Amino acid sequence: MSTPETTRSKTALYLSLAALGAIVAVVSIWMLLRSNDSDTAQSMAKGVLQGGAVGMAAALFAIWRALRRPDTAKAGDRIAAGMADERDRSVWRRSTSILGTAALPLCGAAAVATGLGAPVDAVMAILLWTQLVLLVATVAVIDRRS
């Protein structure tokens, strides 16, 4: 069974609403953290604002690529834009299953490292970035091979 086609205007409307919701969420969290007087909350507020801006910019770039030229867009672009077909969904499903399989030993290693005295913030940052890189790499490899 093939995926039903969605019109570009309907997709653009949904993506615009999603982008607006993401902006509202990031700014709301930033304002909530900014209202606290502690240095930790101030640092978290800066991180939320910067990370949210980078994440939204990357997502908007992928969506723009998928909407501008759907035939030359990569699977990750079409997945981000909500224009994925059966093959793209299969790539996503296989990639996330590999990530889920790898997450258990990665989290176990993080727990051991924390237990041995490694700084928690460094361990969590390494865990987060490792999983993100693994997801991007598996989507790219599976997309290329299938």
Explain this structure.
The protein has 146 residues and is mainly alpha-helical. It is built from 5 helices and no strands. It folds into 2 domains: 83 residues; 62 residues, no CATH class. The chain is flat and about 50 Å long.
Residue share in helix:
over 70%
Strand and helix order: HHHHH
Distance linking N and C termini: 19 Å
Unreliably modeled segments = none
Number of helices: 5
Rg is 18 Å
Strand fraction equals under 5%
Counting DSSP E segments of at least 2 residues, the number of strands comes to 0
Which sheet architecture does the biggest sheet show? none
Mean pLDDT: 85
| Content-based structural category | mainly alpha
Shape, please?
flat
The total tally of domains equals 2
What are its keywords?
146 residues; mainly alpha; 2 domains; 5 helices; 82% helix; flat
Fold topology:
Elements: H1 8-34, H2 39-68, H3 75-81, H4 86-115, H5 120-145
Helix pairs in contact: 1-2, 2-3, 3-4, 4-5
Quick take:
With 146 residues, this protein is an all-alpha fold. 82% of the residues lie in helices and 0% in strands.
